Amino acid sequence: MAEEVVEEGEQLPQPDADDIELVKVLHALGDPVRLWLLKVYASGQTHSCAPDALGIGHLHKSTVSHHMRIMREAGITSTRAVGRNRYVQLRRDDLDARFPGLLDALLKSLPY
After folding, report:
1. Is the CB of residue 69 less than 8 Å from the CB of residue 15?
2. CA atoms within 13 A on the CB side of 77
3. Is the pLDDT of residue 111 over 90?
4. Rounded to 5 degrees, what angle do the CA atoms 104, 92, 32 make?
5. Which residues sit opposite 85 in a β-bridge?
6. What is the pLDDT of residue 9?
7. What are phi and psi of 87, to 5 degrees?
8. CB atoms < 10 A from the CB of 43, how many?
9. Which of 75, 96, 105, 109 could pair covalently with 15 via S-S, beta carbons 3.0-4.6 A apart?
């Protein structure tokens, strides 16, 4: 489930909005799990990394962490670390400014 907006904690490294590359975004979204996460994150809310809460409870935590790192490093998401917890949010504004219409087209094409 979605969490409250988390203001405290440390922002994990991510590219600046101007440095987000289309090739990296598309590569990151070339995996069905990451496309599923894109749909989850598209709600605009901040989400915890709990696999069950994200609808991917069948995956091991380390696998979920891997997918989240790929998305963050591509500039798709922003992650805030609060203690041992991680909170993720889609960088919708940055992606829409950099690649207008891309997220809408991707989200409309998803079968789920």
Report:
1. no
2. 31
3. no
4. 60
5. 82
6. 84
7. -125, 130
8. 11
9. 75
Q: 79: closest CA among 21, 26, 11?
A: 11
The tokens describing 103, both together, are: 């997220």
CA distance 99 to 95: 6
What's the pLDDT tens digit per position in 27-57?
999 999 999 999 999 998 999 988 998 989 9
Q: Show Cβ contacts of residue 8 under 8 Å, excluding neighbours closer than 6 positions.
A: 80, 82
Backbone conformation region of residue 83, classed left if phi is above 0, alpha if psi is from -120 to 50, else beta: left
Both tokens assigned to 52: 């069950």
Strands (E), the chain: 2-3, 10-11, 46-48, 77-82, 85-90
